[in-house]
Design a protein that fits this description.
Layout lengths: L9 E5 L4 H14 L6 H14 L8 E2 L2 E4 L6 E11 L9 E10 L6 H12 L3 H9 L3 H14 L2
Parallel strand pairs: 1-4, 2-5, 3-5
Antiparallel strand pairs: 4-5
Helix pairs in contact: 1-2
Amino acid sequence: MSDFVSSNDVFVNQHAESRDEVLRFISQKAVELGVTDDADAVYKAFIAREDMGETGMTDGFAVPHAKDASIKKAAVIVFKNDHALDWPSFDEKPVDIAISLLVPAGEAGTTHIKLLSKTAVLLMKDDFKSLVRGSDDAQVIADAINKGIDDQD
């Protein structure tokens, strides 16, 4: 199994009050994880994408994504909130779990599309959604995402 996502990339039992707060948190964590040196640039990239259309999927999951030159390596950061937030979504339901994709601008057409499609496939699987929703174990969630990424290669 790949180790693309580690338990350090998964944040459970969080308490954010808005989509904006979630995106700022993820942008700051991207700096701490060595994904970028510029949290503001990543946040602006998230907002630019959000302005293009909803990243909320279904069943309380969102897949915010940022493509920016300040991002040094592709990464997935998971944010699990303690309550659902207003977040434009396909099923018009609030969101409490964000699986964010961060991709260097130069990989936008390749890595970004692969991660986005693999994440979308995972979010169609009820067992995956149930596992992520039912677990607060960061390693279990990271392993489930890695397995999903590997299974589709």
